[in-house]
Structures are given as C-alpha cells and as structure tokens.
Amino acid sequence: MAKEIVAMILAGGRGSRLYALTQKTAKPAVSFGGKYRIVDFPLSNCVNSGIDTVGIATQYQPQKLNEYIGNGQPWDLDRLYGGVHTLPPYEQAKGTDWYKGTANAIYQNISFIDSYDPEYVIILSGDQICKQDYADFLRFHKEKGADFSVAVMEVDWKEASRFGLMVADENDRITEFQEKPPVPKSNLASMGIYIFNWDILKKYLEEDEADPNSKNDFGMNIIPALLRDGRKMYAYRFAGYWRDVGTIDSLWEANMEVLDPENSGIDIFDEKWKIYSRNPVLPAQKIGPRAVVENSLVTEGCKIYGIVKHSVLSAGVVVEEGATVEDAVLMDGAVVKAGAVVKRCILAENVVVGAGAVVGGEGSIAHVGTGLTIGAGATVKEGAKVFESVKEGEEVC
C-alpha cells in the first residue's frame, strides 16, 4: 500500500560550528533541553503530524545516532511497513562513500522512497529545534497545487542577509530566491523544510546528478532549477518556534529559552504536542538537604547537593556540595566536584569538573567536549573551546 507522504531527515552534517561538542557526536544526536536530543524534534513532529514513514540520512559519526534511533519505538515508529530507517551513504561502487550534498543525500535514497510510492516527500533538517505541524504544511501545498513548497519565517530585516530568502507575491508564490544577499528583497527566510511532489523531485534529482558541475545542493541547484523552469513554488509562512542550533551560542540560547516557555514560545510541557525521546533507565533525581535549585530543569538520575540556578541538567548529572552551576547546560553524566564553579557554558557528556575549578564566566559561552576532565583548581575562561582534558591548576583561554 502506497504512503501519501514520506519524510526524509538530513542528519549527516558534521556540525563543525559546535566545535568540541560534535567531535565524537553527530549534531542531531547532541543533547538538548535536559532529556532530548536534537533529532527528537523532527521525529516527534512527524509522528504528531501523522507521518509514519521516515528515512534518516546519516553520515558523520553515525554510531551514537543509530543506537539512539534503534527500532523507532520511542516515537511509535517501530512499524512493519514504514517506520524509521537510518540511511548511510552506499555509492561505494561509484567511487564515493559520502553524501556529496543535500540533494545527493536524497538522490542516493531514491529506491528507498520509491518502495513506498509516495505522492509527496517532505525534507527536514536534523539540526533544528522546531515544533511544527507538517500536516498543516501539506494542506497548504495541496491547496496551492504546488510542485514545491518551503517553510519560511519572517526575520528582522537587519538580519535577513544571513539567510536564504524567498521573494514571494501576494499569493505566496515564489518569484525569486536569494542566497544570503547583501541587499535583501525579502525577509522570508527559508527554514530548510521542503515539500515536493515526488515525481517532480525525482526528475530534478536525476538531472542534477547527471550535471558534473552541480554542487548537488537544494539551495544552490534544485531550487534555482525549479525557478528557471517556472514550476509552481510557494512559501508557507510559519509563525511558531524555530531555532537553528548550529552554533555554541544558539544551542545555549535555545536551552535557556526552554526555561522560559511563556516568553520564548517553546513549551516542552505541552500535552497537545509532545516531544518524544529514548529515556535512560535511571532512578529519580536526588536533591540534597543543603542543595539550592532555582528555575532549572533537572532530569532523572541527577544528584544535586550544591547550587543550581537557571540551568539545564541532563540525565545522571552530579553537582557536589559547595559547587555552583549557573546559566549552564550540563549533558548526560557530567560531574561538578565540590567547590567548582560552572557558569555560562556547555559541558558535553561525561565531563568531570575537578574540585575548585572554574569553567566559564560572564561573557561568551565556553564549552568542554565529551568525556574530558577539567583538573582541580583549573580555569577555563569565557568563550574557551576545550578539546582535550585540562591539567590541575592549568588555565585555558
């Protein structure tokens, strides 16, 4: 039985602007909001929108992401027909074992999509935090009789030149596409979320792959080709929460916004649009008798004996007595020893901050990579990027 729509999540990016956080982890598998990973958001949006067939194009550091996805059970995607599938590159016979671009990642999986004979394909990013009803987006696409639709958000005109922009008429039909233009003609920023009629997309993917000069990219090649050929292209205006968390600052800011749902627009407690995740088997959190916890998310398995203020703590974090954590994001298994101070920073999984050490400060966001140790009495200054363990008493700028 054919599926009306198949979702394809692009989850193969290296995430180089997250520096040490993605040294050992694919960006979609990075922790977010205490108990989630970034990929939970597009997966949950699919399930909540009634999409039950999802392909995830993986590439860089795929093991942790593959293990996390598993059979898809946490998202109700463990299906006999459909469900979730991780899709690594496979064109070794053609001299490559790597996706060459976003369009090539879909091209290499044409046979997967064809096996479900869909009418539509929705292309999603695996590195955004967004709560979006794709069913409403699909309704828009059908009503317009579109060949291609793209989700857009209005951004501040002063920031518009940082984005790929869609110029649209009064009926939302796209007339021009600008990639990070110095002089913007529009403030409709592409969210990198597309719906295509599958027969149209397949045709353009095959033509793009046959072009030796193509970058095999949706923004640089596929969308301009659609415009050139006068295809029916429409901009779907989205007004909900959307953040590209591709930088240290943006990832930290989005985590802080989770603590303020009334003003930020992201509510992880929303019963009507749940975000699902694979949960660790850990006991309840433990808050010690002299602990202070203020306006923070503290996930299962945490042991808090010190001070935690305005912070997000993932599963199994330990904050010892006398330690202070403030305006910080601590990922799974991080340990902050007695007397240490952690402020305005991100600690990746299983980081250990030694007794009396200081990580971060009042300025730009510091971060420490997975499994590293900050020695007792060491200092990691604001904005520092830590790729290797820091010796006792050492200072890192």
UniProtKB/TrEMBL annotation:
GO terms for molecular function: ATP binding; glucose-1-phosphate adenylyltransferase activity. Its EC number is 2.7.7.27. Residues 289-361 form the Glucose-1-phosphate adenylyltransferase/Bifunctional protein GlmU-like C-terminal hexapeptide domain. The record marks 59, 98 as: Could play a key role in the communication between the regulatory and the substrate sites. Signal peptide: none annotated. The keyword Membrane does not apply. Coiled coil: none annotated. One of its GO terms (biological process) is glycogen biosynthetic process. Residues 7-259 form the Nucleotidyl transferase domain. Keywords: ATP-binding, Carbohydrate metabolism, Glycogen biosynthesis, Glycogen metabolism, Nucleotide-binding, Nucleotidyltransferase, Transferase. It catalyses: alpha-D-glucose 1-phosphate + ATP + H(+) = ADP-alpha-D-glucose + diphosphate. Involved in the biosynthesis of ADP-glucose, a building block required for the elongation reactions to produce glycogen. Catalyzes the reaction between ATP and alpha-D-glucose 1-phosphate (G1P) to produce pyrophosphate and ADP-Glc. This is Glucose-1-phosphate adenylyltransferase. It comes from Faecalibacterium gallinarum.
